[in-house]
Amino acid sequence: MDTPRFLPAHPDRLDRVAGPWASLFGEHSRNAIAGWSNAAFGQWHTRRKLGRLVVHIPRHPDAVERVLLANAANYHKPRIVKKLIAPLVGRGLLSADGELWRTQRKIVAPSFAPGAVAGLIATMAHAARGAMSDWPERGTIDVAQTATDTTMRIIAEALFSADPRLVTPQATRHIAAALEAAGSVRLSAILGLPTLRLTRVARAGARGQRYLRETLTAIVRERGPEGGEDFLGGMIRDLNTRFSRSEATALAIDNAATFYLAGHETTANTLCWAAYLMAGAPQVQERAREEAKAALTGDPATLPQRLPYLKQVVDEALRLYPPAPRFDREAVADDMLAGEPVGAGDIVSIWPWLIHRHRHLWDDPDAFDPDRFAPGREADRHRFQYLPFGAGPRICVGARFAQTEALVILAHWIAARRFALVEGAPPDPVGLVTLRPRGGLKLTLSPAD
Ligand code: HEM
C-alpha cells in the first residue's frame, strides 16, 4: 500500500558524540533514549569506559546473536543489575541465571504455550470492552492511562484470579513509582555510586516497592503450599515439589512480582504507541479497522489469526518504540564480538532503541511503515536486528501472551472508534526501564462509523 510517510516523535539527536559521563548527568540520566548522537544510529560498536567499568554497546546483528544465542552461556545478567532489582523481583525468572533460571523457566513455560494463551482471549476481550465503556463518544482520552488500567486488569485476572488488591489505582501509582525509581538509579548503581535515596523519586519508589512486595507476600502466604487453581497456584505447587517450603515461598513471591510487573506495563506501552502510530497514519488505521471489523464477526478463540495486517502494525510499533529499549549482560570470560574484544566482567548493553533505528539496517528507519513486516519480507532482515522481546534462550517468556493481548485489545478499540492526533501535543517518549510517553498520551476519539 502506498501510504503518506508518517514520521513519529522521537527525542532530538545531537550532532556531536556526547562524552561517557554525559549518561550520568543531564537529559540522558532522566531519559535513556535521549541524548544520543546522530552517529550512534550508524555505528556498529561503542566501547565506553566509566571509571573501572567497561560498557560495550554492540549494534551489529552478528554480535547481538553471539551474546544472546551462540555464546549465551558466557553472558549473565549483570550482578549490579540483579542487586538493583532484587528488592523488587528478588531471584525470580527475570534476574536468575544458571540452574535456578532453568528450573523456574521450566515451571512457568507451559502457562504461556499457545493453547494456554488462546484460553485467555475471552478475558482479554472482556477487558478491552470494559475500557471502552468509560470513553466519551467523541473527545480526548489519555490512551496511556486506559492502556495501563486494561493490561493491569488482564494480568491480575489471567495470572492471579483477579485479586482485587492488584487492580487498585493505588497499586498503579506504586508500580509506576517503583519502575521510575529503578530506572533512574540504574546507572549510578552500575558505577557503584550512592543511589541518592533522599530524592522524591527514590522515596516514592521505595514506598512503591514496599507496597508491591507486601501485597504479593500476603497473597502468596494466604494461598499456602496448595496454591490454588490459577497461574500463581500452579507455580506455588510446582516450586514446592523442587524446593524447601521457605525457599518455594520466597521464589513464588519473587515470581509473582516479576510477572505482575513484566506482564502489563510493557504491553500497555505497546498499545499506546500502536494507537498513536495509527492516529498519525489514517490510511493504515482504516485498513486495520476494516480487517478488525471482519475478524470480530468470527470465532473469538481464533481472533488474532484473522488480524495479519494489525499484527504488522504492532510489529512496527515494537520496532519504533521497543517497550524494553535496552537490556544488559555481563561477560563471564573474555570474548570477541564481531571483531571487538570484550573482557571478563565487562557490561554488554543491547539497545533495541538503537538497533531498531539503525540507518544501515533499515530503510528510512524513523518512518512508520507496517509494510516492512509484510509476509515474505523476513528475508530482508537479519534475525537479530529486531529484538522487541530479546532473543535466544532468555527471550521473553510472555511474548505470545503480549502479542495476543495487543491484537485483541486494539481490534476491539479500532473497530469501535477512530483515533486522531491532538494538534500541537506530540507525545514525549521517555525510556527508563520501559519506553513510555511522559505525562501520558492524548488522542482524540470519534465513532468509527
Ligand atoms: C510487548 C510486551 C513485552 C515486551 C516488549 C517484553 C520484552 C522483554 C524482553 C526484551 C525480555 C528479555 C530481557 C533480557 O534478555 O534481558 C523479556 C523477558 C521477560 N519477560 Fe517480557 N516483554 C513483554 C511482555 C511480557 C509479558 C506479558 C510477560 C508475562 C506475562 C513477560 C514476562 C517476562 C519474563 C518473566 C521475562 C524473563 C524471561 C527469562 O529471563 O527467562 N513479558 N521481556
Automatic annotation (TrEMBL):
InterPro entries: Cyt_P450, Cyt_P450_CS, Cytochrome_P450_Monoox. PROSITE patterns: CYTOCHROME_P450. The keyword Calcium does not apply. Coiled coil: none annotated. Keywords: Heme, Iron, Metal-binding, Monooxygenase, Oxidoreductase. The keyword Cell membrane does not apply. Belongs to the cytochrome P450 family. This is Cytochrome P450.
